[in-house]
Amino acid sequence: KAVSSGQTESHHKRTHTNGTFNCSHYGNGSCPENERALAIRAAMYAFMAGAIVITVFGNLAMIVSIFYFKQLHTPTNFLILSMAVTDFLLGLIIMPYSMVRSVENCWYFGLAFCKIHYSFDLMLSITSIFHLCSVAIDRFYAICYPLRYSTKMTIPVIKRLVFLCWSVPGAFAFGVVFSEAYADGIEGYDTLVACSSSCPVTFNKLWGTTLFMAGFFTPGSVMVGIYGKIFAVSRKHALAINNTSENQNTQMKKDTKAAKTLGIVMGVFLLCWFPCFFTILLDPFLNFSTPAVLFDALTWFGYFNSTCNPLIYGFFYPWFRRALKYILLGKIFSSHFQNTDLFTQKETE
Question: Roughly what angle, to the nearest 10 degrees, separates helices 38-68 and 75-89?
Fold first, then answer.
């Protein structure tokens, strides 16, 4: 993500001589004059700031809703809660700094924070897709093996899944970035870092391929396969609805709708992040010739996935709209509202 933001020269132009850096191709490390007109910069700030506000407050509403309302304390929703935390953190601690870099064409926050920022950026993107994989597994058991669901997807199992979703991407992202393994073998990379006024992180062929395969393609393929099976079973359920009891009928409809909604969330994620991950894969094989502005645009296209998720939930889930209304009205400060029935709009004392 944001792999080559601010990169202004191709790697074959970088030179390193006698332990000193020749920065003639990069300037002296100070920020170049921004060539964008003031009106364009203002429009970019307004658009990106709007996306940040929706991302932060939309996902915060999802977090508060699931955490507060007892009716929403289900295994699936705990996974969605953890995924909303991922999107919330992306909007709160990643997107604002990326916004400044994107608009000003410069990284003002130092090399050390550049690595921290990029590590969290990479971690959160992989964490999101791991969460989606976990949700796909949860829905697979709920719809395809409903009699086993309560014994397979228990709260301890969900806790272990959440731990894996956070720990594995975190170890990978911080390990690769702070060890600078991603840059091994890239000629002139030290010069780029020493001379550039941006926050350059460029993956070599090995780590670019590893990131694409392990962080995106493999879990993405697993999700697509699982949801293919889920939708096949859902169609069978739809044909069998007339021959089932009313309670079974209602549960089948709920499970099918949940699977469709989460399938849309998965599809939006793959659509938003595939171009960026694919470019990371191809860039080292193209002699790092991808324009910086394209990398930046693809990175923000990926960020917008975190903006879309609460909008998708709001559009497809009436319970989320009701929960949001109660939050905005301040009714959640009354303890008895924890037992509100969000599905029928009746309250239980």
Answer: 150
Helix (H, G, I), strand (E, B) or coil at 105: coil
Calpha distance 44→188 (Å, rounded)? 32
The answer to whether the CB of 205 falls within 8 A of the CB of 122 is no
With bands split at pLDDT 50, 70 and 90, how would you rate the model's confidence at 238? low
Kindly report the pTM of this predicted structure.
0.84
> Does 64 score more than 60 pLDDT?
yes
Residue 61 has pLDDT above 50, yes or no: yes
Across-strand partners of 68?
A: none
Quick one: tokens of 34?
A: 């921004």
Does the pLDDT at position 110 exceed 80?
yes
Q: Can you say whether the dihedral through the CA atoms of 99, 94, 134, 275 is positive or negative?
A: positive
Neighbours of 113 (CB within 10 A): 13
- What is the dihedral sign for C-alpha 302, 304, 309, 312? negative
The CA-atom distances, in angstroms, between 222 and each of 189, 230, 266 are 35, 12, 11
For the record, the structure tokens of 114 come out as: 């550049």
In what helix (H) or strand (E) does residue 99 lie, and over which residues does it extend?
helix 95-104
Cα 279 to chain centroid, rounded: 17
Domains of the chain: 35-347 (1.20.1070.10)
d(CA 323, CA 65): 6
Residue 89 to residue 128: CA distance in whole angstroms? 11
- Integer Cα distance of 136 and 214 in angstroms: 17
Element (DSSP H or E) covering residue 346: strand 346-347
Within 13 A of 104's CA, how many CA atoms are on the CB side? 15
* Token pair for 83: 């995924």
Q: What angle do CA 47, 49, 50 make, to 5 degrees?
A: 65
Q: How far apart are CA 167 and CA 108, in angstroms?
A: 29
Go through the chain and tell me how many residues it has.
349
Q: Nearest-CA neighbor of 108 among 40, 188, 196?
A: 196
Better pLDDT: 36 or 282: 282
